[in-house]
Amino acid sequence: xxxxxxxxxxxxxxxxxxxxxxxxxxxxxxxxxxxxxxxxxxxxxxxxxxxxxxxxxxxxxxxxxxxxxxxxxxxxxxxxxxxxxxxxxxxxxxxxxxxxxxxxxxxxxxxxxxxxxxxxxxxxxxxxxxxxxxxxxxxxxxxxxxxxxxxxxxxxxxxxxxxxxxxxxxxxxxxxxxxxxxxxxxxxxxxxxxxxxxxxxxxxxxxxxxxxxxxxxxxxxxxxxxxxxxxxxxxxxxxxxxxxxxxxxxxxxxxxxxxxxxxxxxxxxxxxxxxxxxxxxxxxxxxxxxxxxxxxxxxxxxxxxxxxxxxxxxxxxxxxxxxxxxxxxxxxxxxxxxxxxxxxxxxxxxxxxxxxxx
Length: 358
Fold this sequence. Notes:
The chain is 19% helix and 27% strand. With 358 residues, it is of the alpha/beta class. The protein has a nine-stranded mixed sheet. The chain has a six-stranded antiparallel beta barrel with strand order 5-6-7-10-9-8. Strands 4-11 form a two-stranded parallel ribbon. The radius of gyration is 21 Å and the shape is globular. 40% of the residues are buried.
């Protein structure tokens, strides 16, 4: 299967540059993965497509201010460092720009010396292992010096950094937000639980591996970077109990999906575990746990677009994307949402949704 098979045309003006004032006011396309039928509503109405007994799986990772702007100690040349994954002894795997200034042995300075670093070695695909030295607590220094690591396609300045966090973010470690979760408010989550839908909280620290462009011509030749994940016994029990009682497992975002699929046995039973996952889901994959997926609209030729295509079919997804473009949906991190499901019932739908059913 070719990477080019997952391309589509997207006008630049449809790339969302700013979050909406109301998280749940984003538009929502509901896609039946079996029939390809679609409805259009807004995210407030996601609860109408969730049913008592379902289990909603959310990723409670928290984005760290992982973007550091510093300089080389000797020359003063500007350097940008993006923290990707914490190792041991204050060593981080990082992405450094420009890379030519980050050869092993190079020493970097941030915040007038508040934070210092030395490049130890070059890792896979040009990433750098960097060891930091400092006085005090690293997280406090990072909060003072670091910036939120917004994707390069977002050119506007983020006024409130909390809008690049989910309302349930808890465990620090991500270099990017699990953006499907940005649509939820605390009030909406309370309504969902009152409806009899359980919520399982899992953790996957999002790295750049999920978002790196696929450069290989054949998608099977693409190498996924690993990301740390953790599923507690409580979360595993909630997911397994819902499945045993006939409920659906609804994952919020591709990161939650990759987490539960990584921790499941061949019978679909999720185990409490932690570790690194490099799971790559593309058409032909047999889902062991996930039944339905709440997700955003993804970049062309991305591993995320391949994942949703594995769930609903490539042509079904690309047709839905073409309709989203025609209807001027907002795309990517701060954009609108899609719910890929196996059911279409809703207690209430907008007239627009009924008119737009295909």
